[in-house]
Amino acid sequence: MSLNQIASSSRSKLLRPLTSISSSSSSSLRRSFSSSSDDKTITVETSIPFTAHNCDPPSRTVETTPKELMSFFKDMALMRRMEIAADSLYKSKLIRGFCHLYDGQEAVAVGMEAAITKKDCIITAYRDHCIYLGRGGTLVEAFAELMGRKAGCSKGKGGSMHFYKKDSGFYGGHGIVGAQVPLGIGLSFAQKYSKDGTVTFAMYGDGAANQGQLFEALNMAALWDLPAILVCENNHYGMGTAEWRAAKSPAYYKRGDYVPGLKVDGMDAFAVKQACKFAKEHVLQKGPIILEMDTYRYHGHSMSDPGSTYRTRDEISGVRQERDPVERIRKLVLSHDLATEKELKDIEKEIRKEVDDAIAQAKESPMPEPAELFTNVYVKGFGVEAYGADRKEVRAVLP
Ligand SMILES: Cc1ncc(C[n+]2csc(CCOP(=O)(O)OP(=O)(O)O)c2C)c(N)n1
Ligand SMILES: [Mg+2]
User: Fold this and answer.
1) Bigger pLDDT: 379 or 370?
2) Cα(238) to centroid of ligand 1, in Å?
3) Which ranges of the chain would DSSP assign to H, the alpha helix?
């Protein structure tokens, strides 16, 4: 097979029709968001079955409610809008430095949150804005952080790659590829040690999946039966490198060898929810598991990458048309008569306003004080001396 043939066969695997949405309602559901029908059970089927390695896969049948379906739609539409707005802010130079957008991958963030609690931990790489929002972070704190303002979730000192929200179990936001995975295993060690019944989701990309530190950390997690879920967000590219050029075996769910794994349609929020629920139960009894989320990023790798030099525009628009996570939920909402197309459009309009208001508010926040350069950097009490670039003169002695 030529490289071009390999590329086009891997491209065709990216496309999977939305037509497999099948669902049934256990009762006749009418539109009334605030009534008791909010909690009626709706049964949906995941887009495709799970593929399992070293374990029995969970069922394709997932239970939901009108309330959850509507919240999936709203949460994903909000994430999508936030990322589009971040793109504009970057282009108008209000966001500087690195910025990696998550649009296309929203079902992973939303489905994962639906299966866990804020006592469970999540740690991820630099594509972190939507994970932060899912953990309960606010739009104002997110935009303020992106624009380097005091009101940001990391006080404006971290920027796009370093969102953090420890009070609801979000441990960042990391810029060094793969480095968050051993940290995540450390979190799961603490969880096992304190026997609190919580778990850690350590997220990484298909590019990071080839790194050695991941296997070292996984070995320890398996050896000590730690409650660690390794979530490989396979968006099929590491910067401009397609997975087939970087990985001898791109079956990332199998790469743990002795560690079980599941391949999940990461564009289907219900498949993600089902897989994460299954994984949480699994790791609390049996030790780590790998979830490979088959997903896609619409934007380029970061703002300096137009995203169209190493893949075709047809590939991107094909995924948008056939697998888009927001459109999948829109179809489910409509097929269950939970809202009309116009009502969903109105929700999207409100979301647009919510995002614009948050940006305006974030812009009001000042930049951090210059003295903040020295806080949260060193442990206090060592009297560390700071020198200028000439290294001759002591400029400050830190407390
Ligand atoms: C240790 C290290 N090597 C290289 C880089 C540069 N780099 C940043 S992102 C990236 C690609 C990672 O791709 P993947 O893991 O698939 O994540 P994605 O960006 O697709 O979410 C690389 C090579 C880095 N930040 N850290
Ligand atoms: Mg990737």
Assistant:
1) 370
2) 6
3) 3-14, 66-91, 106-115, 129-134, 139-146, 180-194, 212-223, 243-246, 269-286, 313-323, 325-335, 341-364
Instruction: State yes or no: pLDDT of 169 exceeds 60.
Output: yes
Which of 127, 211, 239 maximizes ligand 1 atoms within 8 Å of its Cβ, making it the mutation to test the pocket?
239
Ligand nearest to the CA of residue 125, numbered in listed order: 1
Q: Which residues contact 132 (CB under 8 A, 6 or more apart)?
A: 142, 153, 163, 164, 165, 170, 173
Q: What is the pLDDT of residues 53-92, one digit of tens each?
A: 999 999 999 999 999 999 999 999 999 999 999 999 999 9
Mark the residues whose beta carbon lies below 5 A from ion ligand 2: 205-207, 235, 238
Q: In 3-state terms, what secondary structure has residue 39?
A: helix
Q: What is the CA angle 149-75-135, rounded to 5?
A: 55
**What's the rounded Cα separation, in Å, for the pair 337 and 7?**
40
pTM: 0.90
Angle, to 10 degrees, between the axis of helix 325-335 and the axis of helix 269-286?
110
Share of the chain above pLDDT 70, in %: 91
Expressed in angstroms, the distance from the first to the final Cα of the chain is 63
Residue 258: HSE in the Cβ half-sphere, 13 Å Cα cutoff = 10
Residue nearest to atom 4 of ligand 1 (CA): 177
Domains and CATH numbers, the chain: 42-368 (3.40.50.970), 370-398 (no CATH)
Helices first, then strands: H and E counts in the chain: 12, 13
